[in-house]
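User: I'm writing a tutorial on reading structure tokens. Could you give me a worked example: one chain, its sequence, then its tokens, then a sentence or two explaining what the tokens reveal?
Assistant: Sure. Here is the example chain.
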Amino acid sequence: MTTTPDSTMTSQFLAYSRSKLMAQCWPRMRQCVESLTQEQLWWRPNEASNSVGNLLLHLNGNVRQWLVVSFRELEDTRNRPVEFSTQEGASAAELLGKLGQTLEEASEVLSRLTPADLLRRYNIQGYDVSGLEAVYKVVEHFMLHYGQILYITKMLRKEDLGYYSESKKSGKAQQGSTNG
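And here are its predicted structure tokens:
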């Protein structure tokens, strides 16, 4: 296979996207969720807000719909309203298991996409988007809710999670840091 600037850019974009999801966000998010009690997992500060449990259900639905279902051309059976209306139930282990499986499937999808896949148009959740837009949306969306889960965990546990301790020493990120 001949390497072209398009294939090089595609592979770098997809590798970075996979790294953000699988190597940075997922392990930290999982650690946060595992540290919460069942009550904390489903705690909401008010009716207008979501619990960590809701955010996990939502991320699973979002990643599955936008990456797995779309790029594999599967039937979309997502029920988005249930992701937010659920107020109790599944344990952290169950929610993390489902999301972990979805992320593994998404990682596999990201590992095989081509420049043509990223340029192709998809209809996802009523939006007409390119494959590149779909990947970018998932990573951006995942990181938004990742930040919310870290914030809620810090608030509930009343302690620093220590994820950015290297930047506290010098006031800047160290070489190789994944700080965002």
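What the tokens reveal: Residues 176-180 have pLDDT under 50 and may be disordered. The longest strand covers residues 121-124.
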